Structures are given as C-alpha cells and as structure tokens.
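Deviations from the work plan: none for this task. Representative record:
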Amino acid sequence: MGKSEATTAAMNVVAPAAHPLYVSSLEKGFRVLAAFGDDCAALGVTEIALRTGLDKSAAQRFSNTLHQLGFLEKDTSTRRYRPARKLMELAFTYLRHSSLGAAAMPRLIEAGAVYQTTMNLAEREDTDLIYTVRIPHQKAAYVATVPGRRIPMYCTATGHAILSQMPADEAEDIINRSILTEHLPGTMTDPKEIMKTVRKARRNGFASTFAQLLPREIGIAAPIVDYRGRPVGAVHIPAYTPRWTVANARQKLGTLAIETADAISGALLASGQKF
Amino acid sequence: MGKSEATTAAMNVVAPAAHPLYVSSLEKGFRVLAAFGDDCAALGVTEIALRTGLDKSAAQRFSNTLHQLGFLEKDTSTRRYRPARKLMELAFTYLRHSSLGAAAMPRLIEAGAVYQTTMNLAEREDTDLIYTVRIPHQKAAYVATVPGRRIPMYCTATGHAILSQMPADEAEDIINRSILTEHLPGTMTDPKEIMKTVRKARRNGFASTFAQLLPREIGIAAPIVDYRGRPVGAVHIPAYTPRWTVANARQKLGTLAIETADAISGALLASGQKF
DNA sequence: TACGTTGTATTACATTTTAATACAACATAA
DNA sequence: TTATGTTGTATTAAAATGTAATACAACGTA
C-alpha cells in the first residue's frame, strides 16, 4: 500500500512559463517543499538539489530560508531538513474561510456517527482531488486518514462522483489528461470503462469503487453541487472488507453519502455563497 | 467568539535578520499568504500591499505568482485573491511523516469513542500551540474543529500540560514571552497564577481550564513525552457546559487524556524515533 | 458622463540572486 | 591514525532578477 500511495504523492509545483510578473524565487522555494515525498522523511541539501533540479547553492539558500521562516526543521546532528509543524498553519489559512468546509463539518460529524464510518470531504484540483476535511472513525492506514492528501479522480469513487455531475466532454477531458496508472491489480485504466462507471454514478446519484487505490477498500461517494448544479466536491465514505460487503456498503453508505452531500449542497445554497 | 479567535490567528512570518543565504523574496511570498487573517476571506492587491507592508507592485507580483502556483485562487469578477485548496497539500507534506501523528491517530480515534468527545493533538510552536490532528465528535464552532489553528499556551489546558513537563525556568520564559491577552472575561493573565496552575497540572498529570479562549469550554489536556521525558505535544479534549461539569470532566476526561497521552508516548518510544 | 478607486502593464535601474569556488565537517575504510 | 570521499557551509564577482515609479485601463459610484 505504501507503494500505491507513493505514486499519488508528489505535489505539483512546476514553472508556468515566464511572465513579467512572475517571481521565480517563490516557485523555487515551493519546489523545495515539494521535494519531500513519500519516500523521504528528511533531506540534505545535496538531495534537495537533486530532487528539485536546483543547483547546490540554490538548494542551500532556499532550504536555509525556509528553515529561518519555520517551515523546515533542521536536525542539527544529521544536518538534514524536514517539514515543520508550521506548514499546518497554511492549511488553516485555507480552511478558515472555506464555506464548503464549514457547511460540511457538522454534517460529516453527524453522518459518521450513523455506522461508525470515516467521513471525508474532497475537493477537485485539476485531474486530482484533495481531501480537505477528514473525520476518521475506524482505524486505517495513517496516510489514508490525513487531510491534504491528493488522489487521482479517474479511479476513485470520489472522482467519479464529481465527474458524474459534469458535462460529458469536460469529464472526458479530465480523464484524458490523467495519468492512468494501475496502482493495484484491477485498477481501472481504460477511459471507456471509466466513463461507463461515471455514467452509472450519474444514474445512481453516487459512485462506488472497490480496491482501486487501497486493497480491500470500498469507496462510496456522492457529489456536492453549487447553486448552478456544478460539482464543487464530494462526500467520501471508505469501507473495508470483510466488515463491509460491496452490496451492503452501496445500499447503506450510498444512501448516507447522498443524504449528507445533499444536505451540504443545501447548506451552501442557504449560506448564499458561490463557494 | 469570533473575536476571541481573531487574536490568535495571524501567522508569524517576520524577517529573521538579513543573512547572505537568506532569500527575501521567499519571505515576501509567505507574508502575502499570512495576510489572509480571520477578518478577510478575500483580498485585493491594494489591501494585500497594506497588510504586508509591500508596495503595490510587489504585492501584485507575489499575488500573481502565488496564483500561478495554485496557492491563491482569483475571483475573476472581483479580482480578489483567496487562499486555495492546494495549501492543504503543504499540511500533508508535514503530516505524512509525522511519527507523532501516526502514533496518535489510532489512539485518538479509540479514545474519542469512549465518551463521544472530540480529540485533539497539539504540538508546541514557540509560545503557541498548533493543532495537528483533530478528530471532532460533537459539533462546535467551525474554526475550533479545524487543524492548523494556533492558540497560545499560557491560557490553555493544552499549553499547561506541556509547560508542566518542562523545567520551571523554561516554562516561565515561555510565559514571559507570551502576549497575555484577556480573550474572555476571566482569561488568566497573571504569570504567577499561570505558573500555579501549571504546577497543579504537574501534580495531577493533566491540566484543565474553563472558559479561557472559548465560552463554556472546559479544556482537559495531558502531556505526551519523548524518550527523555521532554514534552513533544499534548492530547486535548474539549468539553462544553452544560453537557459536562468541570468536576465530571476532570474526573472522566482527565483520566482518559492521561491514558491516551501515555499510550502515545509509549508508542513513540516503541517506534524508536526521537520524534 | 465624470470622478475616484483599484487592478494591470511597462520600463530603466539597482538590488538580489546566482553559480563557481574554496573551505570545513563528518563518515568510512584502509 | 591517516587517507579519502562525501556532504554541508561560507564567500565572492557577475548577471539576472526583482524593484518602484509611472502610465494606462477597468470598474463602480454618483
């Protein structure tokens, strides 16, 4: 599973073409942060240079600066850097004013209590999703319980739920631009098959997948829509065999996911925000 | 309550003196992100310039760059910026390899189920704390359920729990460097009184506070220590009147907090990590 | 339509970052 | 221990980047 996680891990911080108003130093700083992947808890400057494509001097200066700012810790004995707690504050900067998060939170808490299941809120980020709110109930792989994680749309119930509320051409575009990797034996990588699943999700009002990214995981997800009916995120409920069967999960958790997502959509509408 | 939250909100991104290896552009970029406080969901460039101390041109370039990188969203109609989902990925960069988080997660989940209470993990950040893992059970003010939030140590059970495991002079130093604000009528701001509470926490093995930052909130917290006995964080359980009384919370939740914190300390030790 | 305000684009200028290099610290093995 | 490689740190002259001033455009209000 560690392996299957790895492929979804790298944060995307690439040069979006030179522009007169573009401060490339800022990008380099974020490239350093993005260098910390699944496979490395701590990095030295040489390794950072290697992973970021910066030369040693640049790696040195940016690591140093991030350290001074408090976003990287430095182990004085090994002289290696690691991400620091303060990065959590940046998440708060986002979440604090997320009307989606605020609308979702109480409803996810409530829904999680029904069957003692974990409840997640995911939002779209291009061809991927990011979990923004997670309310764990049952124990699972640690990374699978942590917010901020990015997963692809093409092979996840959450992704299908969102795709199901889009015009077909838009959904197809996302799938075509996705890197279709067979994370586990059985991960769907055929665009036609994926679109078929998406259409099924559209008919049912929710999506479900089995063992696509994590072994034994049944994913159940329902879309959250804005005032225009456009998908802004999805409620995701993970369940695991053998405690749950696919049929049982689809019936019970599918309904729960839809109810919860609809309640959130409604609350968003009431709060009058577009987001 | 919104008010009491506000004072604890601003992220600390200040110039740590010029150094030859210091990239000031990076700092400016983070200053822009830090400009988004409690009182503003979105900001225009002029406002950003005002809040960051950058001039209009700089504010323009850094906002633009952060936008291109995906860390700021731009509302095309109002032309104002707002923090974007991608900031969540930075939190993941930290959490992914947090052995403290990994040790705490399953134990917090388990403990939260006992009395249906929210469970938090907080870590120290100078004179403040940052919530890194939050497992909400009961509904509460949205910001009080969101990870990444920073709160002061001097007037919180979580802070006292950590201070209680430090040498007295170190604890006093933290209190002296804290900005002692009376967030609510009754917030403790007298260093002597604070130290007295901390000593009491030391004797009891856990700390408790009432209505210090949030009205009606009873805070219960127990320290997590590393292999040297040094505090690395704390388990925090919030409870609210009238559902809980202070006495009842101290008795039941105090015990639970201690047990959970000890279990986490033990797991950390077993995992062989210093952190 | 006129006016203030706010966002955007363009420059010459100079400060900042760069990349090369040299040095120091550490780890490993002979 | 001494030698040897590797990795981290510090210092520069050179150059590229970011700066701040300014002008222009877009929007909202009266």
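DSSP finds ten helices and eight strands in chain B.
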